[in-house]
Amino acid sequence: MAFRTEEKELVCAVCGEASLQNVVVEFDPDESVPDLDMRPDEPHRSYIKHWVMECPHCGYCNASIDIPAEFTKEYPMSERYRKQGDDLAARFLKMSLSCEKSKVYNEAVKAALYAAWVCDDENDEERAAECRRTALRIYDSHKASLSGDHNIVLLAADLMRRTGDFDRVKKEYKGKYFPSTLYRLIAAFQMGLAEKGDSSCHKADEIPGIEVR
Ligand SMILES: [Zn+2]
């Protein structure tokens, strides 16, 4: 058992209606080696689908529907929100819109990345790239507040490389200061891959000098 879910009644923070949701109540520590964008490997990979919930009444999506939002139910009911679609990747994109609207920009970037992971699994390369570009657009729009979050800054390097923007990785990360050896090693590794024009998925334990269990 990597994780266990239970059905629980939750009240939507946006519309106030209650619904039954699958909630992860227990999980084992993740000891697998993640990808460079911190995507977990199995068995935890299967648990990603539980990282988003959707209110069946207003359509609000977030990590949990009881997370307060800085908008009213008109937003999840809007055309812009609804047109994302109904599948798992779409729910993550809607979660990204919710987080961005509520000014939780790091979570907005990550939710768009999770949408990309879902598309990766479905071998939908075009949509995966679109989701990564969405994540980058959020990163670019809120750079002032995200530039101090080194995890997000490194994640952005992976987003750029995976969408084939090697020049940007080389330009933005060359000589960039990071406060720890770990971050510097990851940044150098991303630069090396960008130099080679490598846009494929890599694992964190491929980085020289990094030991991952
Ligand atoms: Zn709702």
What is the approximate shape?
globular
Specify the helix fraction band: 40-55%
**Which spans of ≥5 residues are poorly predicted at pLDDT below 50?**
none
Give the mean pLDDT. Answer: 94
| Tally of DSSP helical segments | 8
Widest sheet, order of strands: 1-2
Give the helix/strand class. Answer: alpha+beta
Distance between the termini: 19 Å
- Bound small molecules, deduplicated: zinc ion
Topology:
Layout lengths: L2 E9 L6 E10 L25 E2 L6 E2 L16 H4 L5 H14 L3 H17 L3 H17 L1 H4 L3 H13 L3 H8 L7 H15 L18
Antiparallel strand pairs: 1-2, 3-4
The structure holds zinc ion (ZN).
The site of zinc ion (ZN) has 8 residues, from loops.
Explain this structure to me?
The strands form 2 sheets. The protein has a two-stranded antiparallel sheet. A two-stranded antiparallel sheet has the order 3-4. The mean pLDDT is 94. A hairpin with a 6-residue loop joins strand 3 (53-54) and strand 4 (61-62). It has a domain at 3-149. It has helices at 79-82, 88-101, 105-121, 125-141, 143-146, 150-162, 166-173, 181-195; strands at 3-11, 18-27, 53-54, 61-62. With 213 residues, the protein is α+β, with helices and mostly antiparallel strands.
Structural descriptors:
two-stranded antiparallel sheet; two-stranded antiparallel ribbon; 213 residues; 11% strand; 4 strands; binds zinc ion; alpha+beta; 8 helices
Produce a short descriptive summary:
By secondary structure, this protein is α+β, with helices and mostly antiparallel strands. The chain is 43% helix and 11% strand.
